[in-house]
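Hi R.,

Quick one: here's the Spore germination protein PE sequence you asked about.
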Amino acid sequence: MNKRKVHLNSIYLNSISYSSIFEIGDTESCHPVTKAIAVQQEDLKFQEEAFDFADFDIFSRKADRLASAFSVKQENIHHSARINVGQISIIGASSSSVVQIGSLANLHSEARIKHIRVLKEEQDNEAEI
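And here's the predicted structure, written out as tokens:
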């Protein structure tokens, strides 16, 4: 892949997090991966409870990928050695996302997030036991 130079007038990126990538220019490959456990508690009283990735099979299962129905032969011809961009405004990018200005030949991105909600009623029932 021939690498090109980027001319970018301005960019505003408010937030980028959790294995996300902001890339300016041409890139051969990119493989961001996120694994996260998100805990939301209804009660204001914080109860420290340990969670481990091994406790949830979502983090160890093989991903269900779509089978490619056909292959596409692609050839890119860049008529200029420069990438010219005026202005970009991005609110946020999170959980293995990619913001790319330029070509990206190979992208494999994966995000696995286990959401756990602890309701006040459940906390009260556990306290009575």
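The first strand starts at residue 5 and ends at 13.

Cheers,
M.
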